[in-house]
Design a protein that fits this description.
The protein starts with a helix and ends with a helix. The longest helix has 35 residues. The protein contains five helices and no strands. Helix content is 77%, strand content 0%. The protein has one domain: lambda repressor-like DNA-binding domains (434 Repressor (Amino-terminal Domain)). It is mostly helical and 101 residues long.
Length: 101
Protein backbone atom coordinates (compact mmCIF):
# COMPACT_ATOMS: atom_id res chain seq x y z
CA UNK A 1 0.00 0.00 0.00
CA UNK A 2 2.82 2.43 0.84
CA UNK A 3 4.42 1.82 -2.56
CA UNK A 4 1.14 2.62 -4.34
CA UNK A 5 0.81 5.87 -2.36
CA UNK A 6 4.41 6.80 -3.21
CA UNK A 7 3.80 6.21 -6.94
CA UNK A 8 0.61 8.27 -6.79
CA UNK A 9 2.44 11.08 -5.00
CA UNK A 10 5.17 10.86 -7.62
CA UNK A 11 2.65 11.10 -10.45
CA UNK A 12 0.97 14.07 -8.80
CA UNK A 13 4.34 15.79 -8.46
CA UNK A 14 5.19 15.29 -12.15
CA UNK A 15 1.71 16.36 -13.23
CA UNK A 16 2.19 19.54 -11.20
CA UNK A 17 5.59 20.12 -12.81
CA UNK A 18 4.16 19.62 -16.31
CA UNK A 19 1.26 21.96 -15.57
CA UNK A 20 3.61 24.64 -14.25
CA UNK A 21 5.96 24.32 -17.23
CA UNK A 22 2.95 24.69 -19.54
CA UNK A 23 1.98 27.89 -17.68
CA UNK A 24 5.57 29.13 -17.91
CA UNK A 25 5.51 28.47 -21.65
CA UNK A 26 2.35 30.58 -21.91
CA UNK A 27 4.08 33.37 -20.02
CA UNK A 28 7.03 33.13 -22.41
CA UNK A 29 4.73 33.37 -25.45
CA UNK A 30 2.90 36.36 -23.95
CA UNK A 31 6.20 38.11 -23.21
CA UNK A 32 7.34 37.51 -26.78
CA UNK A 33 4.05 38.84 -28.17
CA UNK A 34 4.50 42.03 -26.14
CA UNK A 35 8.12 42.38 -27.22
CA UNK A 36 7.17 41.98 -30.88
CA UNK A 37 4.06 44.17 -30.43
CA UNK A 38 1.79 41.50 -31.88
CA UNK A 39 -1.66 40.81 -30.46
CA UNK A 40 -2.93 37.33 -29.78
CA UNK A 41 -5.57 37.82 -32.45
CA UNK A 42 -2.90 38.82 -34.99
CA UNK A 43 -0.75 35.83 -34.08
CA UNK A 44 -3.68 33.42 -34.33
CA UNK A 45 -4.55 34.75 -37.79
CA UNK A 46 -0.94 34.48 -38.98
CA UNK A 47 -0.68 30.83 -37.96
CA UNK A 48 -4.19 30.03 -39.24
CA UNK A 49 -5.69 29.38 -35.81
CA UNK A 50 -8.93 30.70 -34.48
CA UNK A 51 -8.46 33.08 -31.52
CA UNK A 52 -9.98 30.46 -29.22
CA UNK A 53 -7.32 27.90 -30.15
CA UNK A 54 -4.57 30.29 -29.04
CA UNK A 55 -6.52 31.33 -25.93
CA UNK A 56 -6.92 27.72 -24.74
CA UNK A 57 -3.15 27.33 -24.85
CA UNK A 58 -2.36 30.68 -23.26
CA UNK A 59 -4.84 29.98 -20.47
CA UNK A 60 -3.42 26.52 -19.80
CA UNK A 61 -6.54 24.58 -20.77
CA UNK A 62 -4.64 22.93 -23.65
CA UNK A 63 -0.99 21.92 -23.43
CA UNK A 64 1.50 23.35 -25.89
CA UNK A 65 2.98 21.06 -28.52
CA UNK A 66 6.33 21.35 -30.24
CA UNK A 67 4.47 22.06 -33.49
CA UNK A 68 2.60 24.94 -31.81
CA UNK A 69 5.83 26.50 -30.61
CA UNK A 70 7.51 26.11 -33.99
CA UNK A 71 4.57 27.82 -35.71
CA UNK A 72 4.62 30.70 -33.22
CA UNK A 73 8.39 31.03 -33.34
CA UNK A 74 8.33 31.13 -37.13
CA UNK A 75 5.82 33.99 -37.16
CA UNK A 76 7.59 35.92 -34.40
CA UNK A 77 11.05 35.56 -35.96
CA UNK A 78 12.63 33.41 -33.27
CA UNK A 79 13.14 29.71 -32.57
CA UNK A 80 11.04 27.36 -30.46
CA UNK A 81 13.95 26.55 -28.15
CA UNK A 82 14.20 30.26 -27.23
CA UNK A 83 10.60 30.14 -26.01
CA UNK A 84 11.35 26.99 -24.01
CA UNK A 85 14.53 28.47 -22.55
CA UNK A 86 12.55 31.51 -21.36
CA UNK A 87 9.94 29.18 -19.82
CA UNK A 88 12.69 27.20 -18.09
CA UNK A 89 13.97 30.44 -16.56
CA UNK A 90 10.52 31.04 -15.08
CA UNK A 91 10.52 27.51 -13.63
CA UNK A 92 14.01 28.01 -12.19
CA UNK A 93 12.93 31.23 -10.46
CA UNK A 94 9.95 29.43 -8.92
CA UNK A 95 12.17 26.62 -7.64
CA UNK A 96 14.63 29.11 -6.15
CA UNK A 97 11.80 30.94 -4.42
CA UNK A 98 10.59 27.62 -2.98
CA UNK A 99 14.10 26.70 -1.85
CA UNK A 100 14.47 23.85 -4.33
CA UNK A 101 16.78 25.55 -6.84
Amino acid sequence: MAQVQERTRGAAYWNDQARFFNQATSQAVIALLKKREVSGRQLAARINWGPNMLYTRLSGRTAWTVADLHAIANVLNTEAHHILRYAQGIVNKREEAEGRG
